Amino acid sequence: MNIYGFMIVKDEADILAQTILSLIKFGSFKKIFIYDNGSKDATLQTAQQFSSNQVVVSQLLEQFTDNLKYENVYRQVGLLQDGDWFAILDADEIYQEPLLPVVLNAELEQANFIETRSAQFYFTDDNKNHEFKPDIAAAEQRPHYLINYGEPRIFKYNSKTKLTADQIKKKAHPLVVSSKLFLIHHFQFRSASQTQRRLDIRLANNVHSKNWGHINSANWQDYMVCARYLHRYDGNLREGLPAGANLYKIKNNAAYTMANLLWLRKHGYLTPDQMEFFDASRLQRLIRKLW
């Protein structure tokens, strides 16, 4: 059994080296394929610094769609064999634990895909600046987070089945999920300029791909979160919401979207009082907000 990684990346030069180093350290990958999707910064050059028998770097100038990530896998004719595994990689998702034991656990459970458990790091009102230095650990620069989301990211290869983005979103047959989630650190928001560029790229791409309809604002400042709504990273991760977090009184923000809250509920990270929030009527929520 071999594990392969596939990444399509655009304009992520500031974080890419940290991500690749984490993949080499924790991924147990036979090969990592990195495709630059027309970057205008030093992404391609940064990736090429890691070129080796294990890390294969090339350019892919097709219009990005969510499904392209999976099409790329099946273009590697003769590489993956039945029983191998492959991971869909993002340039801003840093591995934090060994992948192989999680894959072996999935094998024991006869599962064929693994979801992530994402500690998502945010801009906050506590940040002294909104710049990002590639040579300083990301969590030191953006230390505020919540474990509040995850996606299917690692799959068992079967030559008789070609997975699609739509099938994966629906978790349709023949997908069987592993009980163990795979931990990553996700750094979507690193600097003001990077975040604004990210928004601009995705909104422009959405015209073609229809993949970014969930982006609610084109202004990077709207993705800042009050530090008191988040945990501060100290080398250990805490689950759930910060002590005393009252969902009725927390203002709308990037870390507490309904998708985030539903994920927290699904995985048992909320207190009984916080669970009541989902059953409250609009009037009850307004009363509790003012109370």
Total strands: the figure is 12
At the first level of CATH, the class of the largest domain is: Alpha Beta
Query: Radius of gyration in whole Å, from Cα?
Result: 19 Å
Q: Beta-sheet strand percentage?
A: 15-25%
CATH superfamily of the largest domain: Spore Coat Polysaccharide Biosynthesis Protein SpsA, Chain A
Broad shape:
globular
Number of helices: 10
Which structural class fits the helix and strand makeup?
Answer: alpha/beta
CATH third-level topology of the largest domain: Spore Coat Polysaccharide Biosynthesis Protein SpsA, Chain A
Give a short account of the largest sheet: 10 strands, mixed
Mean pLDDT rating: 93
What does this structure look like?
- By secondary structure, the protein is of the alpha/beta class.
- It has 2 domains: 3-186, Spore Coat Polysaccharide Biosynthesis Protein SpsA, Chain A (Alpha-Beta Complex); 243-291, no CATH class.
- The chain is built from 10 helices and 12 strands.
- The strands form 2 sheets. Strands 1, 2, 3, 4, 5, 6, 8, 9, 10 and 12 form a 10-stranded mixed β-sheet that branches.
- Helix 1 links the parallel strand 1 and strand 2.
- The longest helix has 18 residues, at 192-209.
- The radius of gyration is 19 Å and the shape is globular.
